[in-house]
Write a structure and sequence with these properties.
221 residues, mainly alpha, disordered N terminus, 2 strands
Length: 221
């Protein structure tokens, strides 16, 4: 009898409360990534130079996070300023921003440019869509915080993104189709691994590695 109607709905319905969706955070996630890619192409910077800038930014962000978590006043101020795009759980833990910059930086450092950009597109689009579908429709759990429905969404987004990206940068043939299916699987598996490692870090790095290995066997990019 102590449960309210809203809490009962939260527990029993796959359609979670809007507050669980973090819509503003997801839009921020996509907008930040797309803005960064536009700046990258417009700037004319090399992938190595961009990766170095992002690595420095990541290091500075980790320093800010350390200071924030050590100083309650700074922490409260930043939580107020960044409230629309930060989870309540990040009040006492490192936020995703430094991991985002680090993941993109490592992908640009270690993988060919086109594959690195593709892995970054996975982070920009597949990560928030998998989370959104998981919250709304996630009935079948694969891992504690991962559902079959969310993983299928990640696969679908990565497959479509790769196919469109391939039609722009590669020849439209059977190899591209096979590569896109493999890329969908790679992206979905990378998103699942975010159960154990921050998604902003593991998705671009693991996806980049997987895409690199598949591209050796199926020369597409």
């Amino acid at each position: 009898m102590g449960q309210t109607l809203s809490s009962q709905l939260r527990m029993t319905s796959p359609m979670r409360m809007r507050s669980d969706l973090h819509i503003k955070r997801k839009l921020w996630h996509m907008a930040t990534g797309l803005t960064g890619l536009i700046f990258y192409y417009k700037s004319g910077f090399s992938s190595d130079k961009t990766a170095t800038i992002l690595l420095i930014f990541s290091a500075c962000s980790f320093l800010v996070e350390f200071l924030r978590l050590r100083n309650e006043q700074v922490n409260q101020l930043l939580m107020v300023l960044m409230k629309p795009v930060m989870r309540e759980s990040e009040k006492n833990s490192i936020s995703g921003m430094p991991f985002y910059a680090l993941g993109v930086s490592l992908s640009l450092f270690f993988f060919p440019e086109r594959l690195a950009i593709l892995s970054i597109l996975f982070l920009i689009f597949a990560d928030p869509m998998a989370s959104l579908c998981g919250v709304l429709y996630g009935r079948d759990k694969i891992l504690p915080n991962k559902s079959l429905q969310g993983t299928m969404a990640a696969f679908s987004v990565c497959y479509i993104v790769t196919l469109v990206y391939g039609l722009i940068h590669a020849s439209p043939n059977i190899n591209l189709l096979v590569f896109s299916i493999a890329a969908g699987l790679i992206g979905a598996m990378s998103e699942l691994c975010s159960q154990f490692i921050d998604d902003n870090l593991c998705i671009p790095v693991l996806s980049g590695l997987g895409l690199f290995l598949v591209n050796i066997m199926i020369q597409v990019f």
